[in-house]
Specification:
Elements: H1 2-8, E1 19-22, E2 26-27, E3 34-35, E4 40-45, E5 54-57, E6 63-66, E7 71-73, H2 74-79, H3 85-89, E8 98-104, H4 106-109, E9 119-124, H5 128-131, E10 140-143, E11 148-152, H6 153-161, H7 165-172, E12 176-179, H8 181-188, H9 197-220, H10 225-244, H11 255-262, H12 268-288, H13 297-313
Parallel strand pairs: 9-11
Antiparallel strand pairs: 1-4, 1-7, 2-3, 4-5, 5-6, 8-9, 8-12, 10-11
Length: 314
């Protein structure tokens, strides 16, 4: 008896106003008119439990009684037979489509210690038949347990064109583990992503994060010193990008100073003053930079189309 009750109450009560599809033939007792399974109606009155019937109104105003097993929610009915995206992609290992894999973060900067993780980033280019399917492909593959993240090629290019520092560093890190011919071509044209947009992107990020640090100091008297170190590093990197036209990843020239910040050997006032000095230098570098105002969108687009064609051939 207990099992019967569980079976009867397995489905949640569908609220009034929900559109449904009939699973059985229904009739109007007054006119003897009938509708084959698949008729659409709307619930006008729901029962208190699934042992009783729903009152359903059809488009012509006819009201009928249907039990839960005699109807389906219309949205669910129309999705039957269509796999979910997750179920469809579960049959494929998209990590086999990674065309570029590199190490970024502290190990790439030369700021790692025994506790540092190995952060892997990169790009994947899925087969065209998956990309063109009903289900599409995710913008990124992420394995947080292994500190891995791979962007789909188009997503990677768009973010790089916006001057995102994390993505630009992927193109300049010396620690490369996987490099397909397509990825090699991308590295050979990586300067197309560098423009004066770097000034706004890097500067804006550092300003907002230092503001949060100042708030943390006021509220709790503590900050994340590792985070402060990387924000200083980011400003140093941005200055080099604007002045010299490449993204420095290793920080050998500033390693000892940056580690001193992480190890809390430098007072906050000195860290903040260095940050302000770097902002002024960043401003001057922006004013005199030879970088273009915008990245080369057309060349990036041509590269993407060519890479897509290679995915068709594969």
């Amino acid at each position: 008896m207990a099992n019967a009750n569980i079976s009867q109450n397995f489905n949640l009560i569908i609220p009034a106003g929900t559109q449904i599809v009939t699973k059985i033939e229904v009739k109007n007792p007054a006119t003897n008119q009938s509708w084959k399974p698949g008729a659409v109606g709307v619930i006008v009155q729901s029962p208190t439990d699934n042992s009783h019937a729903y009152l359903v109104k059809l488009p012509d105003g006819t009201e009928i009684s249907l039990r839960r097993h005699e109807l389906s929610i219309r949205k669910q009915f129309q999705s039957e037979g269509l796999q979910s995206k997750a179920d469809f992609l579960a049959e494929y290992n998209l990590y086999d489509s990674v065309i570029y894999r590199c190490i970024v973060g502290s190990k790439a900067y030369g700021l790692d210690n025994a506790q540092s993780d190995t952060d892997r980033r990169g790009i994947y280019l899925p087969p065209a038949n998956l990309h063109w399917s009903l289900y599409g492909i995710p913008e990124q593959l992420e394995n947080k347990q292994n500190d891995e993240c791979y962007w789909e090629l188009q997503k990677f290019l768009i973010v790089a064109l916006k001057g995102n520092p994390n993505v630009l560093e992927c193109l300049y890190t010396p620690l490369v583990e996987t490099l397909s011919p397509v990825a090699q071509e991308l590295l050979e044209m990586r300067e197309i992503f560098l423009s004066k947009l770097v000034y706004q992107t890097y500067n804006g990020y550092v300003l907002s994060q230092f503001k949060k640090m100042e708030q943390d100091l006021r509220n709790s008297g503590e900050i994340r010193w590792k985070h402060a170190m990387h924000l200083i590093r980011l400003l140093l990197s941005g200055i080099t990008v604007l002045k010299e036209g490449f993204v420095p990843v290793r920080v050998d020239d500033y390693r000892s100073q940056l580690l001193s910040i992480r190890n809390q050997e430098v007072p906050w006032d000195e860290v903040n003053q260095w940050r302000l000095d770097l902002h002024r230098e960043f401003d001057r570098a922006f004013d005199s930079s030879c970088l273009p105002e915008r990245p080369n969108y057309e060349k990036a687009n041509q590269f993407l189309i060519k890479a897509r064609r290679s995915a068709i051939e594969d």
